[in-house]
Predict the structure of Aminodeoxyfutalosine synthase.
Amino acid sequence: MNQTELNARFREIRDKVESEERLTMDDGLFLEDPQVPLQEVGALANLVRERKNGNLGYYNINTHLNPTNVCVYRCRFCAFRSDLRDPKGYAMTDEQILARGKEATENGCTEMHIVGGLHHQRPYEWYRNLISLLNSNYPQIDLKAWTAVEINWFEFQTKKSVQWVLEDMREAGLGSMPGGGAEIFHPEIRDQLCEHKANTHAWLDIHRTAHEIGLRTNCTMLYGHLEKAYHRIDHLMRLRELQDQTGGFQVFIPLAFHPENTKLDHLKKPSAIMDLRTMAVSRLMLDNIQHIKAYWIMLGLGTAQTALQYGADDIDGTVRHELIYHDAGATTPEFLSVDQIRHLISETGRKPVERDTTYHEVHRDPNHFATWTRGEPVDKISVSAK
Ligand code: V47
């Protein structure tokens, strides 16, 4: 394509975005082309970002819990997993889990993000009990737990339906589901990354069922490894199609691959340029998902800040005890203080807003930081006030 053709094609897409018309697979592929200036794609994504979320930059106060790293699967991108008998392998005790709940409550956390390995010797009841233990002792914390891959494993363990597992977990205290395990849906890539675990159909079906019973969930895409632009756009379009049917996804998180200590350690980590383009293209393709998250743990602080001008409106949380990315060579801090995360957002010119897991405003007691109440859904704040 020569420069004149390139400009004309870009104008066509800009017109569509301005008139809120949906982009096609071909549009997405064009925006992925390195010949199309990144700043222009970013500016277009920023238009959508500001239309949907104004000038706000969301964050939450959260912590992670990875109850075990022992896993039956051997995904090639994972540095966290362990074999049962490896000295690195662990499974947390009830006391350790409760101590995390106590620490989270004392720090004013509104969310615990719980994911881990599929342990050969731990029955379904172990996974259920830990949710119930945390929920009964620390009921205010939203337990954002289990990826679709884990739910698929629980189905296998219990021989019950997805709906049964999700309802049973909800009864134990599950509040919502994180978006992990999606990787890349296209079988050309998924079969090379993780051929044994929950396939694309299962991942989408589990999220569909969660939405149907009223659970909100997140969605992700792992990029920067074996996939090509076509696989990324295909992935986004499959998420968009499900969202059209259910409306249950609250946020999309593009996850940059970290190769250290994985079976793909010969690959280079994606560049900041790729991170920003993926962020912007995701914002433009996913016209029906309200929020796009720049997960600072994996992007690094500088790129996460910049991403707030490239389509993202959320930066995840203060985070504590994150292992999946740090085991894979992430050099970002272990956690940020509330002042640091607010500064990170406000330095970009955005207004920091604390939200809870399901995107309600959080109101804190000015005299006692750890005491908080849930306010209105943030999406009800009118765009003009944003
Ligand atoms: O499914 C694993 C990815 C995911 C590596 O829902 C890796 O709010 C890069 O899903 N390099 C788990 N990525 C993390 C996740 C997540 C993170 C933050 C917020 C939310 C949310 C969800 O991490 C896995 C996989 O796609 N992953 N290993 C690696 N070496």
User: Anything to note?
Assistant: Residues 51 and 281 are 16 Å apart (CA to CA). Residues 229-246 form the longest helix (18 residues). The pocket of V47 is lined by residues 77-79, 147, 178-181, 183, 218, 220, 222, 253, 255, 257-258, 262, 295, 316, 324, 328 (CB under 6 Å).
